[in-house]
Specification:
Low-confidence stretches: none
Number of strands: 7
Number of helices: 18
Strand order of the largest sheet: 1-6-7
Mean pLDDT: 95
Bound molecules: NADPH dihydro-nicotinamide-adenine-dinucleotide phosphate
Structural class: mainly alpha
Largest sheet: 3 strands, antiparallel
């Protein structure tokens, strides 16, 4: 059945829908190549992050490799020496990284917030959890605190980039320790779901769906308050560094400060929309999410900043029209991303009977659809077919990927390393789409097929 407004009459999940949800909450097959695949990911990603950082830090962004098989041992010894020299988990790095974690936890605990009801959780008998969304006030408090620390010389923000390698190692250790710790916590409290029974696979995928301490939902807290805060302050650190050494901030660095602030601010200002995302209601809190939030995102998405902070601006200077194109592309992609995410999340809220929406800065035009069209599924849920969602089944992914590409393109062709984010991200998004569509196809059956007929394109309308 296709529907048109009002979307505000509350949905109820049918008995058949509940049966399907129960099935989807069971482990049925291994993903990511099973235990072997996830072990490779757990070992391979940290190694790759060290390698890319070494190339940027010690070799001016050039990809280094052994010239012959006989050189491999020497090459590995050199790599290890670089790690020992520039990426030891120093006490200072523990203080900086740990200080930020504790400060962000403290803010999440005490700052006033907007109370948002999450989606009904099948494994909790369709109970909804309450989220105290105070990321925005926490962000403002963090920005003010950072400015005070910098201006009073208590903690110069340039220190963040200067200690990049050391901080990255500490972040990785925290990512591993938290992943294993949370796994054992889930088992000890009996809060595990969708378990495979294979230890390493379950540590990777996670055991617990909604980890909470007091009023804090740890999964949502870690998704917003750690990676994007660090990414933004690394950009600010790069800006401060250029200002101190060059006397000005390049348009490229200013671009990254703007880009990372837009992303961080979007996550904070629309925090109440995050409970409606796949990460919150489906993905468990395991290594895949934890490591990526603690270490992967903050230390592998902004290689362009590391490059710019250590190289002469002549290596990455563009003409004025190129800067205009770069900034325009970023802002256009941001608009589509913010708007499409808001349209879907608010549509989902409407179907829960929520009609009062939070107004934070900036509210982009067309972010709430009046009289949306949708497909009413037999499951009970509705699939939006209006707004950006009329053109493609993943408009948000396309826009997000374009932003990631801009984060690399900001240094042009000076080094390939900052393109790591967009290359990695396209693999993540394509894999995520296949997992998501497979799940939706099981969940909605024929209604999903009908939705795919109404919205035939996965990504770019008219293309694919
Ligand atoms: P989506 O926001 O696309 O959510 C997918 C879910 O939404 C589906 O499982 C389905 O769930 C529901 N859905 C899909 N289509 C519709 C529709 N037309 N109407 C109503 N509900 C629909 O994806 P994610 O949660 O994966 O991503 C959210 C954002 O996070 C994206 O912008 C993504 O790019 C970003 N992201 C960023 C990462 C990064 O490292 N930078 C990593 C991962 C994500 P159901 O029907 O069961 O409710």
């Amino acid at each position: 059945m296709a529907g048109k407004s009002p979307a505000t009459n509350k949905i109820t999940v049918s008995e058949a829908g509940k049966e399907i949800d129960r099935r989807l909450d069971q482990h049925d097959k291994y993903e990511f190549g099973g235990p072997f695949g996830v072990t490779c990911i757990m070992l391979g990603f940290p190694a790759l992050m060290y390698y890319l950082w070494i190339c940027l830090w010690f070799y001016d962004g050039q990809l280094v490799y052994p010239k012959s098989f006989a050189d491999v041992n020497l090459f590995l010894a050199e790599m290890w020496a670089h790690v020992c020299e520039g990426a030891s988990p120093s006490l200072y790095a523990w203080k900086v990284y740990g200080g930020n974690i504790i400060f962000q936890l403290f803010l999440a605990w005490v700052m006033p917030g907007y109370r948002q009801e999450g989606l009904p959780v099948p494994s909790l008998n369709y109970k909804t959890l309450i989220y105290n969304c105070n990321a925005l006030y926490s962000l403002y408090a963090t920005m003010i605190t950072a400015a005070v620390l910098h201006c009073t010389n208590i903690f110069r923000l340039t220190e963040i980039l200067d200690n990049f390698g050391h901080l990255m190692s500490v972040a990785m250790i925290c990512g591993f320790a938290t992943s294993f710790g949370v796994y054992f916590w889930a088992i000890a409290t009996g809060s595990q779901i969708r378990m495979s029974g294979n230890f390493i696979y379950d540590v990777f995928m996670g055991a617990i769906l909604n980890p909470r301490i007091g009023p804090i939902d740890l999964k949502m807290w870690a998704e917003v308050r750690i990676p994007w805060v660090i990414v933004f302050f690394l950009s600010v650190s790069g800006g401060c560094k250029q200002y101190e050494t060059l006397g000005y901030v390049t348009p490229n660095m200013a671009f990254m400060i703007l880009a990372t602030w837009l992303y961080l601010n979007a996550c904070a200002k629309a925090e109440e929309c995050i409970p409606q995302t796949w990460d919150m209601y489906h993905e468990k809190w395991g290594f895949m999410v934890i490591f990526w939030n603690f270490a992967g995102v903050p230390f592998s998405y902004i290689y362009s900043i590391v490059y710019m902070a250590r190289q002469d601006p002549s290596k990455y200077q563009f003409s004025t029209p190129t800067y205009v194109l770069l900034y325009t592309t970023l802002l256009a992609a941001y608009y589509i991303w913010d708007c499409s995410m808001s349209q879907k999340s608010r549509f989902k809220m409407q179907t829960q009977g929520l009609t009062n929406f939070r107004k934070t800065f900036p509210q982009v035009p067309w972010c709430i659809i009046e009289n949306p069209t949708y497909i009413q599924t037999a499951h009970g849920n509705r699939l939006l077919t209006s707004g950006w969602w009329a053109y493609s089944r993943k408009p948000n992914y396309v826009a997000d990927w374009i932003m990631s590409f801009c984060w690399g393109a900001v240094i042009g062709t000076a080094t390939p390393i900052p393109y790591f984010y967009s290359v990695f991200f396209i693999v993540v998004l394509v894999h995520r789409v296949s997992r998501d569509f497979e799940r939706c196809s099981v969940k909605y059956g024929k209604d999903w097929d009908r939705y795919c007929e109404v919205v035939p394109y996965k990504f770019i309308p008219g293309v694919f």
